[in-house]
């Protein structure tokens, strides 16, 4: 049985897998981690919140505006 993912605490690899499936292109855990570190959203346990990650990407796509 596969362990359910918690979208507020994903490992970089789990998030990369979700993003890869959604976009139908390969995204690495290293790429996800680099973006999350830039955004300052990597938790003390090394996990990433999907909502915060998506919000950061949206802000970047909008030119960094809040």
Concise description?
The protein is mainly α and about 70 residues long. It contains 3 helices and no strands.
Quickly count the helices.
Answer: 3
Helix content percent band: 40-55%
Main sheet attributes: strand count, strand direction, barrel closure: none
Number of strands: 0
Over all CA atoms, what is the radius of gyration? 12 Å
Question: Can you give the mean pLDDT?
Answer: 93
Q: Which class do the helix and strand fractions yield?
A: mainly alpha
Low-confidence stretches: none
- Helix-strand pattern: HHH
| C-alpha termini separation | 41 Å
Question: Key features?
Answer:
single chain, 66 residues, mainly alpha, 53% helix
Q: What can you see in these coordinates?
A:
It is built from three helices and no strands. The protein has 66 residues and is mostly helical. It has one domain (12-61). The protein is globular, with a radius of gyration of 12 Å. It starts with 11 loop residues before the first helix and ends in a 5-residue tail after the last helix.
